[in-house]
Amino acid sequence: MALELAKTAENKIADFFERDDALSRLGRLHSHTLGVVEDVLKAPRPQEATHNVLDLAVQKVVQKLSWKLMTEAHATPSSVGIPALLDLCIAGVTSKFLINSTPYKVLEDLMEGQTIGTCEKVWELLESRKEKLTTPDFIAEKGRTTKASLCLLRMCNALLRRLSKTHNSVFCGKILVFLSFTFALSERSAVNLTGKANVTNVTVFEDEDAFDLAEATDAAKASEIVPGLEIDDDPSADVGPIDYNLYRTFWDLQSFFREHQMATQSAENWEKFFTELNVVLAAFEGNAFSPDDLERSRDLSGGPIHSADATMHEPESDSSTNSAEQGSQEHFFQPKYLTNSRLFRLQLRDPILRECMLTQFLIVFNDLARAKPPAGSTTPKAKFADLTERVVALLKQTPSDGEGFNEMVSNVLERERNWVKWKQEKCPGYEKYPSAADKEGSAPKQVVKRARRQLTSPLLEQILSESSKPSQILEKIKGKERASEVPLTAYTDRFKEAWDPENGMEEEYWPDKDEMVCWRTMRAVMKASVDHLGLAVEGTGALVKGVLGIGANDAIKKEQQKDDKKPDREVAKDHSSGIKRERSDSLKRTQNGNEPPVKRERMGRGRIRDDDIEDGEA
Question: On the CB side of 186, how many CA atoms lie within 13 Å of its CA?
């Protein structure tokens, strides 16, 4: 009966998962299935049984979509409807219709049956919905394990095992970044608690017979060189003698790097580890870097190191396209070095390989510092301190930036020690709060009383108490250096000083050339002598001359000189014409009805007599 329910649910989900009302149809399907489970199957936990039936139905639908995606030409996850099914599963979990691991189970089933290229496209669907898939409905906040979190870890670990660290390093990085985003910092799944090592990374090197044969072949080729033929200098010519013991010891150390705990398994391994370390360090110390080595190191560090396989399999027709996209898609990786004995002389002088070896030494020392030496060993654990000093000295001498690289490695190892210690202590809270004893022992803080602000001041009380004039109040409250009104004479004196020829001031420095001085002078004239503002149209200089009376006195003198030169007859004519003009003006005003004609005539005669008196006195 349960299989029939799952088959029915599979057909219905396959029919409506791409429709707009898919969630409501899923809700009705959940209610129907729950009723059948309760009434017919009589399950002890009907809700859990219903979730299992619907989860099985979704897996069957995903199986069909995965087959369609793999067999149909030009099929994509979007074309077969995977995004719609994934969104329906997320909404179903939020509405309590499905179990919380269903969306991750959909992705896991898809990636198990698809190629790496298709898995990258499916992973993009996961990243675009990470905000929904990492809510408390799926991943618990406090590190509690859920079915969804276990399914996610299982899917990511399976993907990482399939991916190549060199060819798919970007995809590996995306997976690790998503795990860091999803799980809390206190999640213990990020630590290798059991201490398992990657024992599958085996380094194979030549035996003694192959080594001797290669040396003999190289010696025979060197003897066949034609005399007088110019050849390039051999970079390995100045390297000391190389024997099989040094070659074997150099590459045999990789077994300890692969599995650190092998050194503590027996006293023989412990002593062998220290012996081989001393041999390799002595070889490094005896082969200093030459200028050619430094130049080669700069050339290698100046550009990216690409995979040889990627270059070999690159199609020629797409070389221009790939070269254009290379700048944005470059990724770097550390290759596994060749163990050919003919390269060993060069490898001893290779700065990059030496840097890698010395870094491995420091990592091993950091791990074995917490281990106990095996019983029966003669080399003390304190020997690690001397070896560390030798390794650090060699690392600082390694080009191109040995000092900076050594500092970076030291910081990383220090953080690693703190990280492992925190994980081993079951991730305690790292926010430190004062304990009760610290609170009791600390001196009580003195309570600082805030001074009450007075709403009044003595000056305000004095002003309010006395009945003084407003002008007196303003005089009391204004500041000592408060700006006051500048008198007009202060500006006119500046003009007089500038116009005085004895001062010898150049015209370009006169105050009437300064717009601000002109503007302030006009404001002062407006307040003190408004009757001269008519001269402002001629400029500030004419206005100041009018205020000072410089131009008016000259005009009066000229008029007086003209009057003195006139004969008496012309003066009499002027007086008579003036009298006639005044009489005609008075008659006109009389006709207009303003004043009586007699009165106006008398007033005119009175003015004439006054003028005659003034002329006579003059």
Answer: 13
